[in-house]
Amino acid sequence: MMHFLLLFSRQGKLRLQKWFTPIPEREKKKIVRDMTTMVLGRKPRSCNFLHWKDLKIVYKKYASLYFCCGLDAEENELLALEVLHRYVELLDKYFGNVCELDIIFNFEKAYFILDEFLLGGEVQETSKQVVSRSIEASDMLQEVSERPRSR
Amino acid sequence: MSDVVEKTLSALPSLLSLDSQAGAGKLSPSSKLGNLIKGITELTSKHEEERLIKKELESIKEQVASPNTTMRQMKEIMVRAIYCEMLGYQASFSYIHAIKLAQQGSVLEKRVGYLAVSLFLNETDEFLLLLVNTVLKDLQSTNLIEVCMALTVVSQMFPKDMIPAILPVVEEKLTHPKEIIRRKAVLALYKFYLIAPNQVQHIHSKFRKALCDKDPGVMTASLHIYLQLIKENPESYKDLTGSMVTILRQVVGGKLPLDFNYHSVPAPWLQIQLLRILAYLGKEDQGTSEMMYDVLEESLRRAEMNHNITYAILFECVKTIYTVHPKSQLLEKAAECIGNFVLSPKINLKYLGLKALTYVVQQDANLALPHQMTIIECLDHSDVIIKRETLELLFRITNAQNVTVIVEKMLEFLRLTYNVWFIQTMNSVFSLGGDVMQPDIPNNFLRLLAEGVDNVEDRQLRLFAVDSYVSLLQGETAKLPQRFLQVISWVLGEYSYLREEESDPGSVMRLLARLLDQRHTSTETRSWVLGAMTKLCSSPVYSGSLNTVLRQKAQELMILSQDTKLRARVLPAEDSSLSFLDGYVSEALAAGAAPYKSPHQRQEDLVQEKALSLEPYGLSLPVSLSSCSITDRRSPTLLSMSSGLSGNSTELSHQEGSTTLKLEGVKRVWGKDGYLAQQQSAGETPTPLVELPSPLLSPQSPPSQTQKPSSGLEPDQEKRQLASSLFVGLGSHNSVCLVRFPSTVWLFIKHCQSANQSNVVKALFKPLPLLLPVPLTVSTGDYGKMWLSFSHDLKQNLQLVTTEHQEPLTATLDALKGKLHLHVVDIIGSEGIVACRLLQGPGQGQPCLLHCRVHADSLAVWLRSPVPELPDSLLYHCQKALTET
């Protein structure tokens, strides 16, 4: 099970945080701090895995953004890398050539996509089409209900 | 703000003007969130950011409280509140409004409301109770989107006690016509199961229905529940094995819709989930395991594409194969697969290969053998994570013979990576592990502290250790284990001088004195403490103790502190010539011991005696014996002989001896493939007994010959040597290591058992007599006379040789006769007498008699000779000869 997913920039600025298990506020701050320093401190050509307390940390850099998640020890690291990748693919499909700015300014959208992909720390839906469809369905609704008012 | 962000931000206006493309609603530049984000990125300091956010939160607070704020505005405000929280600023006043938004907003406002709730709260928050009614209402809504939203939030967090309120409605959704609703309902039930398993006990039958759902997505979701259930209680779900195997076969066979492919691999998530379930089902269950062998093999075979995701599947597959009841053919394939991981140039795969090896060596340590060189390389990898995993692997293959090398490697790793952390960790290791810890660990720790050049880093490490111990001693010491206290005392004694500038030296002394006065401090610890105090050069009166050792220490301390001349003699700053042993040496020489020969002399002697048919004593010497002597040397028991007064006295003598691994004595077992031939030539160099690498016992020797190999070797060979010491004990010799107990150690131990210290020293100063027995033909009568006249004897049980057509006694004596040229004088019933004499060596021409008697399953042998060491060495050769038969 995934315990958390963090997106942060090269400068260590948090762009998105999702906690799948109840964690006290103070602990969250510590995790964010530890993750950014640990991951940003990795030398090039190191592996994408780390250990933090009992958790396994899997991270990957996409352009200027780091995607970093904490997993139970028995989880499969390579699979977790693909979870991150699939999330990036979903963001990419939604935003069309996604960049850090899309996520900064539309972080709530990024959360919606995440909620359709992962639920309670487990992969909910692995089909890209299905996830996109359910996001679109909600977005359509948004547009439908917004348009009459704006006209 | 860095340049990069500024650059991207300069492109912002153009981006923002590209307002809403289809689907991706870009932000309008005038939006308040847009302004906030822009405002923050323009700031230059954390302080300014704080001020801006504070202002923002004030304004948000004001707006949410205003009755005029519409839900639509509230939605926008919530997004800003989420943003502030992400930056690390609490907006707890907005939580209640997030719930209100989820309650009262239209569908899209609700969506943000639910999102804010799921980001702000966690399942223990009491606020969440306010959400129950809203969720219940939305679950029953006719709008699918609302139902989805409610299920999504429920699957993330829900108050445990309120589950019964919504459970029936969620259950109902399991039969909903829309697959997305069914899927989310299953995940909601999974969440309920995790937080309150007994609440969902009655719906297990419905889980089964979900497992058989025609939609693969729903089925996949139900596997989360089953993985959990089966993990907790595999016995109750054995009947599912068939279904799981069938599903996996279909998935692997590409029977799912293409939609579920991921980079043209069919449903990898599903595959891995199934493999995990199969592992739990087949564990320690042959019958169940047999059902899955075929599909496991197929999974291995199908996953051939060179993509991360196939490696993920392979890894899981290997794990399953090694978890279920073993099938040799599958194990072979899995081992081959692990090999591919380990040898891969991709670092992630290498990591997983090491991990897989770590997992499988627990079943068969020999699996590590083919990868020795890779493992050695990984030990020096630039990535600490890889290093760490390698150590984990080594830890799993630790046995009695390589434990010291491995522990040393681990400590080295710790010291190199995290200085301060190392001390702290070792502190907790000592506090927790305490007195049950192997003595090797504190010894190695002290050695690590003591060795190395006296550079700034080392000094910092020591100083940090001293400081941390001082503060530890200032606190409660009653709970600290004795061994830890001993370590503390030693370190304080050696390195307190490092902190002299900042505090008065008396404070350490007072802390140590407090330890002495405490009742729970054991006498051994007290002598360590006193040792430390002696080094700190002060004189507490502690001579009233009833314990003689303590008393002696205290007396020594008192006298030494009063008599500076004596102290200078007894505790010289550095006595590299070890002149204190002169007495022993001359005594030993007087008793007929051979004079000391330097290593190269001995080497020459050995070359001259090449005609010997007997194998040299190159077998091995466990490293543990050699390494413990180094810190022990400084222990208080030897204090009066060797300890200097100054703290840095250790370095000199340690530098050469301990920085490199002692590989020379370790048995070179090479296993299936590798460097056996080469290794033997290097490894079989005779190691004379005097070479025991203890600084105490071979004082005058030049840098001991035994350490030369590791320094002068090609790096590659060094690695091989390291490999040989790390992997010792694995492979075919595993079971016989006790029988082939290394000769030198065996002798050493024999002496220790039999004798007082000076005997041991004598024995160690003497080269092992080179044994070349010739038959000594005597009559039974003469034998009896001689027997009575010889004073040095030894008794030992030997194993009997059993053959088909001979009595055990005759067979054993014949074997000895054949191998060692002994003369069998007579055999009477179950007893036999044997005689021989030595052709060369210190006991040249001297006889040795053996009296053998069959006793139960062994041969009780009684040896007598006029030369003290003859029985010992002859017995050793007898033992060896019989073992080889």
TrEMBL record, chain A:
Q: Which GO terms describe its biological process?
A: intracellular protein transport
The annotated topology with respect to the bilayer is: Peripheral membrane protein
Matches recorded under Pfam families: Clat_adaptor_s
Q: Which GO cellular component does the record give, naming just one?
A: AP-1 adaptor complex
The places in or outside the cell where this protein is found are: Cytoplasmic vesicle membrane; Golgi apparatus; Membrane, Clathrin-coated pit
- Tell me which residues make up the AP complex mu/sigma subunit domain: 1-140
GO MF terms on file?
Answer: clathrin adaptor activity
PROSITE patterns cross-referenced by the UniProt entry: CLAT_ADAPTOR_S
Would I find S-adenosyl-L-methionine among this entry's keywords?
no
Quaternary form? Adaptor protein complex 1 (AP-1) is a heterotetramer composed of two large adaptins (gamma-type subunit AP1G1 and beta-type subunit AP1B1), a medium adaptin (mu-type subunit AP1M1 or AP1M2) and a small adaptin (sigma-type subunit AP1S1 or AP1S2 or AP1S3).
Q: What protein name is recorded for this chain?
A: AP complex subunit sigma
To which species is this protein native?
Answer: Oncorhynchus tshawytscha (Chinook salmon)
In the UniProt record, the gene name given for this protein reads: LOC112226554
Automatic annotation (TrEMBL), chain B:
Record's bilayer topology term: Peripheral membrane protein
What keywords are annotated for this sequence in UniProt?
Golgi apparatus, Membrane, Protein transport, Transport
Spell out the subcellular localization from the entry.
Answer: Endomembrane system
Q: What InterPro entries has UniProt attached to this entry?
A: Adaptor_Complx_Large_Subunit (IPR050840), AP4_complex_esu (IPR017109), AP4E1_C (IPR028269), ARM-like (IPR011989), ARM-type_fold (IPR016024), Clathrin/coatomer_adapt-like_N (IPR002553)
| Biased composition range(s): Low complexity | 685-711
Biological process annotations from GO: intracellular protein transport; vesicle-mediated transport
Recorded GO CC terms: AP-4 adaptor complex; endomembrane system
Q: Mainly resides where?
A: membrane
Q: Where is the AP-4 complex subunit epsilon-1 C-terminal domain?
A: 774-883
The record's annotation in Pfam families points to: Adaptin_N, AP4E_app_platf
UniProt family annotation? Belongs to the adaptor complexes large subunit family.
Q: How does it assemble?
A: Adaptor protein complex 4 (AP-4) is a heterotetramer composed of two large adaptins, a medium adaptin and a small adaptin.
Function as written in the Swiss-Prot or TrEMBL entry:
Subunit of novel type of clathrin- or non-clathrin-associated protein coat involved in targeting proteins from the trans-Golgi network (TGN) to the endosomal-lysosomal system.
PANTHER family according to UniProt: ADAPTIN, ALPHA/GAMMA/EPSILON (PTHR22780)
Q: What is this protein called?
A: AP-4 complex subunit epsilon
